[in-house]
Write a structure and sequence with these properties.
heterodimer; A: mainly alpha; elongated; B: alpha+beta; six-stranded mixed beta sheet; four-stranded mixed beta sheet
């Protein structure tokens, strides 16, 4: 509860949280505010913002940009959170095994992690998505697959730190199983930094998805921000609103998540929070 | 195109028609034409590669026997005259004297026979089909070529444009592996322009061929094709005058309107008559529900093609009425018309028993989005919305170039979009999509949808070997009526690509081949 109270007093973290909540609300109420599909051509092409009842204008096909931004929030949040979760599951599993067992297992797993770290994440993501046709699931798995190495290294470091602590040795002496020690004793103590990094991974995942969609490698059946920018980019000289509004949406969301993540880090990191109080 | 533009274009075309050698007033020598080539072609030898950039550039370097006006009638190219025997089996071409290759060696009828019968039959898929009909080709004297056909083939005279029958030097290619010939890099042809240098990723520099056989031609000193990969940069280059000519997809459709307002530029959609790009929504006729004629007719009703032309192609397209483009010979517009009507589409779907389920959904169909740029992506989105209105879920599937070719060629698709050139005659560019003899697995741009109708086969076959134009029209009118009723594919639009050029340049668009033309008669005023 202390952590929650500390977070409530953290100004930038709270700003991030509030903005993020607004984005979540927009995503949830999108179908109520915009009952017509965001793909539906509701106006003349190139309708400027404010005209024809379109708050943010229409795109090259006359689709409502505002509806696109609202529905795009759903796609971005779902993909951001789901792929961060995927990255967390992969990263924590590998990091935990590596850090707990050490030795040859550690060596093999860490060399593999380094291999992934040396390949530029975006290039690998393009390759993976292009290989397995782009769909919601493949995009989530792909982003998860390229985002786990930092989480794995972090988890490993935490496990190395905690593995020889007295409470772990005590648990060992009591004859507790490996799984129980890892999940019941070490992981709960290592969870704070993992949560912070995971929350920041959500932001990078949203950026990655936008970049993929921008390149035309998103799920073609989902209206996403990156797709909207990609589609509007070519006409930016004639119609700025098609790419600017989804761009702002990405900027605001990613910024909010980063602020929230930093706030979380300040609150959960005992040394920093002690300094604060 | 308004009437004034049309008249201008007609006048421009008229100036070039009489053999291209009559000098209109004010034709001056000299000048440089800067233009665009994109994407960068893999090579310049049009006999070995027929992608659009290769043809645009190679058209200046390699010539053929004939040219075609915007009415698709043959005009002299390297052949100054031709004769057809009454039985339609023997074609005799008389060449212009003093034609030379870029290396200075003379071009004779031997080169023509060698190119058509030896090289093109091996390296050029379209030409292979045409020259397979030739029983023998002879060169009785250096300026005479005689083709004897196995049986009459009405459009044979339409097979000699610079993209279908480029002439190569026999002395360079004879006895070699054509595609691996080291002199391919030099691109030696007979055209008015020859290759000076090709800086990869930057530009291709063509200069005048001093030994060109037509008096005073070419008028220009040089043509520089600049490689500009980004569409916004291309538009900017045209706008500020860095380049003076843009063709095909150089300028995005939505930018065309902007250039119409620019005073020093001429925007025309003429010069594509030979190709007449014809676009359709392709449906695999082998798979339910596309195997039912009523479903395909419903598709024609549920696509608002006027809106498609307006929203995706910004008006640079015309609604297609059937398999033959209105710009091509033997077009017949008096066929069944499918107006945009959701009710009619629903009625047809109900009639065939494709009723909506509890959620209002009738069917789910996979649509492979052709990976050829933005307009295809947008068109896919447009179709998905159109189908949604009658309760059909169109699921867009993205893929790369190789994937699309593989899926469509091997019939492993449900719906996609396709675009084919009409090539000046239904026997060359249209029948290939509908006759059952052209259902060939693995081959793109064949009868991939799998439509088969013996009546249609018979009519197309007969029209190809009939020489009487009126009789051919009758046969093609019949076949158009049947196809429009059967809807093997849902024809959407006749695309009208623009050619945009600086008004200082004259004769830029002088034939139905447009920007692929030799440009020998282009001059700067």
């Amino acid at each position: 509860m202390d952590a929650v109270r500390a977070f409530l007093r953290h100004p930038s973290g709270m700003v991030g949280l509030v903005v993020l909540l607004i984005v979540v609300v927009v995503a949830i109420i999108a179908p109520i505010v915009f009952p017509v599909s965001p793909w539906e051509m509701v106006s003349a092409p190139f309708t400027p913002p404010g005209e024809d009842g379109l708050l943010l204008g229409g795109d090259t096909l006359g689709r409502d940009v505002a509806a696109g931004v609202a529905y795009g929030a759903r796609v971005s949040l779902v993909i951001g959170i789901a792929s961060a979760m995927a990255a967390m599951v992969i990263g924590v599993t590998i990091g935990a095994i590596s850090g707990y067992f050490g030795g040859k297992v550690d060596l093999v797993l860490m060399r593999m992690t380094e291999l992934f770290q040396t390949i530029p994440a975006f290039v690998l993501a393009i390759l993976l998505v292009a290989t397995f046709n782009p769909s919601l699931l493949t995009i989530i798995l792909t982003i998860g697959a390229v985002s786990w190495p930092p989480l794995a290294r972090l988890t490993r470091a935490e496990f190395l730190r905690l593995r020889n602590r007295e409470f772990v040795e005590a648990a060992l002496c009591q004859g507790e199983g490996t799984l129980r020690i890892v999940l019941g004793h070490i992981l709960p103590n290592a969870i704070s930094p993992i949560l912070v990094v995971t929350s920041l991974t959500v932001a990078t995942a949203i950026l990655l998805e936008s970049a993929l969609s921008f390149m035309g490698l998103g799920d073609p059946n989902l209206m996403s921000w990156g797709f909207m920018i990609g589609a509007g980019r070519t006409v930016i000289r004639n119609a700025w609103w098609m790419s600017v509004f989804p761009g702002l949406a990405i900027l605001i969301t990613v910024l909010a998540i980063n602020l929230f993540g930093e706030g979380l880090s300040d609150v959960l990191n005992p040394r920093v929070s002690r300094r604060r109080s | 195109m308004n009437r004034r533009e049309f008249t201008q274009a007609m006048l421009a075309a008229g100036a070039a028609i009489p053999f291209g050698i009559t000098r209109a007033a004010g034709q001056t020598r000299g000048g440089t034409l800067n233009t665009i080539i994109q994407p960068e072609p893999p090579l310049l030898v049009t006999a070995f590669n027929q992608q659009q950039p290769t043809l645009t550039l190679g058209g200046k370097i390699y010539e053929s026997l004939l040219k075609y006006g915007d009415d698709l009638k043959p005009m002299p190219g390297m052949a100054q005259s031709w004769e057809i025997s009454p039985d339609g089996l023997t074609y005799t071409f008389k060449l212009f004297p003093n034609i030379t290759f870029h290396d200075g060696k003379p071009m004779t009828s031997e080169d023509v026979v060698f190119s058509c019968m030896k090289v093109l039959t091996e390296t050029h898929p379209r030409a292979r089909q045409n020259f397979a009909r030739v029983a023998s080709a002879e060169a009785p004297d250096p300026l005479t070529v005689v083709f004897k056909l196995k049986q009459p083939f009405a459009p044979f005279l339409g097979c000699f444009d610079c993209t279908s029958a480029p002439i190569l030097p026999k002395h360079i290619y004879e006895g070699t592996d054509f595609r691996k010939n080291p002199l391919n890099d030099k691109a030696i042809g007979t055209g008015p322009f020859k290759l000076k240098e090709w800086v990869r990723g930057s530009h291709v520099h063509l200069v005048r061929h001093e030994g060109y056989y037509l008096k005073d031609q070419p008028y220009l000193d040089e043509i520089i094709y600049r490689i500009i990969p980004d569409s916004a940069s291309r538009a900017l280059a045209l706008e500020n005058g860095t380049v003076q000519l843009a063709q095909w997809t150089d300028v995005e459709f939505f930018d065309v309107q902007r250039f119409k307002a620019q005073k020093n530029l001429e925007v025309t959609t003429k010069g594509y008559e030979y190709f007449a790009p014809h676009q359709w929504l392709e449906m695999n006729n082998r798979i339910a529900p596309m195997n039912d004629k009523r479903f395909r007719q419903a598709v024609m009703h549920l696509i608002d093609r006027d809106a498609l032309a307006k929203r995706i192609y910004f008006g640079n397209a015309k609604v297609a009425t059937g398999p033959i483009s209105s710009k091509t010979k033997f077009y017949d517009g008096k066929v069944k018309r499918y107006d945009y009507s959701i009710d009619k589409a629903k009625a047809l779907l109900d009639e065939m028993g494709l009723k909506p389920d509890a959620n209002g959904k009738r069917a789910e169909i996979k649509y492979v989005v052709p990976p050829y740029g933005e307009s295809y992506q947008r068109a896919g989105e447009f179709f998905r919305q159109s189908f949604a209105r009658v309760g059909i879920d169109l699921v867009l599937v993205g893929t790369d170039m190789a994937g699309w070719a593989e899926k469509v060629g091997n019939w492993d698709y449900e719906m996609t979009q396709n675009l084919l050139y009409q090539l000046g005659d239904p026997a060359l560019g249209v029948s290939r999509t509908y006759v059952s003899s052209n259902i060939k697995k693995g081959i793109l741009f064949s009868n991939t949808e799998g439509y088969s109708n013996p009546e249609v086969d018979k009519l197309f076959d007969e029209a190809a070997v009939t020489l009487d134009e009126a009789k051919r029209q009758e046969l093609y009118s019949k076949v158009q009526a049947i196809l429009v009723e059967d809807v093997p594919v849902a024809w959407t639009l006749e695309l009208e690509y623009p050619i945009i050029y600086d008004k200082a340049f004259k004769n830029v668009v002088s034939t139905g081949i447009g920007s692929h033309e030799t440009f020998g008669s282009v001059y700067k005023s």
